[in-house]
Backbone:
DNA sequence: CGGCGTGTTGACCCGAATCAAGACCGGTGG
DNA sequence: CCACCGGTCTTGATTCGGGTCAACACGCCG
């Protein structure tokens, strides 16, 4: 079984002007003059590790933008089978769906700070500031592109290729201004990675071990992976092993 | 290897007012007064079975809306592995991506008629008619939801469950005004279905055979599936076999 | 009628799942 | 400080579902 955690979290008024994550957020493209309007309809929510922002079946009232921290999107089948749909961090947004209820749960993998918008409030703004709508739509299209990549990965790649693809993706997502280039911090467990890639945690562990043995990566403390041979990792991820 | 077909197709001026697919299209929500503007930036394209509307790597200049016919979206790995991302028909739209090049190919599975928009032209309209942008964005979000379902299906379901899920999906997508309720017309091959579900064509064939033997479906001519026991099919698709 | 693309079915094999044991690591309390 | 404990990770042995290989059936078209 999988722990669901406790829904909840603290709330406080947002101040978009001082938002540290601004350049990577939904509001990235907006001129400062629009911020007050945005400020009026947004609020900050903080969660502790293990809490859920929402779970499958909740009415899809809100859209969120991650300010700081990590979270995991997942779906659970009746019999406990779990599929992880993504790992999100600063700048990512979530909660947008065409359906009236979320089909996913969003759980904090660390202490988490997010910016929350009521969807209907957002609709109002969108008509007034088309540029915002465009940015919003563009981010949805980006998520779609990411999901297409994921479908290819889990539909047609073997275990080693999937794990390598996962590492390449995490590598590429890291911001350029990065304290530790060449090494990746993975806040999620092996089970989370396995449920993301359609594998078991044992298979993920074995894939890491193989890449370690081949000198492609090295591992400190299980959650910090050092990429020793970037080119070879990419080859592995594409099946040119 | 997989045949790529020939890119091409005939062109003619669109007349949105008389479009038979209107209620299911991108333009569904628009008042008649907006149609001339839409008309001005759209054109109809017709393709024959086997032709490609676009292939991976083409610049993503256009967005399309299917008026009539079927098509298949797929991605090809260097070594020939193929993943099918979807089967589209009347009302579906395609070609929208956050990237400058398509990461998919779109091939006609039958003679095909689509409505084509240049993306930048569309951007202009979107600012003028926010309702249109909303409809457009809503359809993108719908595609994203569909992809999340697909990820769960291929990541966590076994062969029989995947094929059952595929049939349930095709069943639900059929319009209410339907000449043959309880039976599904599948224009794609077993290999296409296999590449959609992350299986082999043999495994798909065996799954159909098992469902036939159990009295859940019957099959005429391989491309017409009759659903004999809808409830049991849904159970199968969810792993309550 | 023959040929080819597509679909079905069977025999066998292999990669990842499952089952199981032990190692590691961080946190807690004596 | 160290002993203990629970959660996580690694590694090995075995099993099994679906892939692979192969033969044949079907249906369509020339």
Residues:
């Amino acid at each position: 079984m999988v722990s669901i955690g406790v829904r909840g979290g603290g709330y406080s008024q947002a101040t978009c002007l001082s938002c540290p994550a601004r350049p990577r957020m939904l509001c990235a493209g907006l001129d400062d003059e629009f911020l007050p309007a945005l400020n009026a309809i947004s609020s900050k929510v903080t969660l502790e590790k293990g809490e859920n922002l929402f779970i499958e079946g909740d009415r899809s009232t809100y859209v969120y933008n991650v300010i700081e921290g990590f979270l995991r999107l997942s779906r659970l089948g009746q019999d406990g089978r779990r599929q992880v749909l993504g790992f999100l961090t600063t700048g990512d947004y979530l909660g947008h769906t065409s359906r009236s209820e979320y089909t996913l749960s969003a759980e904090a993998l660390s202490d988490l700070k997010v910016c929350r918008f009521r969807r209907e409030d957002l609709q109002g703004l969108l008509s007034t500031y088309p540029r915002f709508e465009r940015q919003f739509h563009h981010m949805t299209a980006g998520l779609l592109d990411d999901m297409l990549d994921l479908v290819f990965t889990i539909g047609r790649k073997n275990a080693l290729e999937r794990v390598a693809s996962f590492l390449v993706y995490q590598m590429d997502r890291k911001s350029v201004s990065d304290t530790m280039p060449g090494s990746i911090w993975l806040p999620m467990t092996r089970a989370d990675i396995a449920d993301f890639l359609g594998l078991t945690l044992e298979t993920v562990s074995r894939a890491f071990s193989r890449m370690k043995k081949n000198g492609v990566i090295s591992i400190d403390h299980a959650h910090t992976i050092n990429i020793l041979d970037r080119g070879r990792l990419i080859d592995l991820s594409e099946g040119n092993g």
Notes: Confidence is low (pLDDT under 50) at residues 1-6 of chain B. Helices of chain B lie at 35-41, 119-128, 130-156, 159-173, 190-197, 201-213, 230-237. Chain B touches chain A through 46 residues (CB under 8 Å).
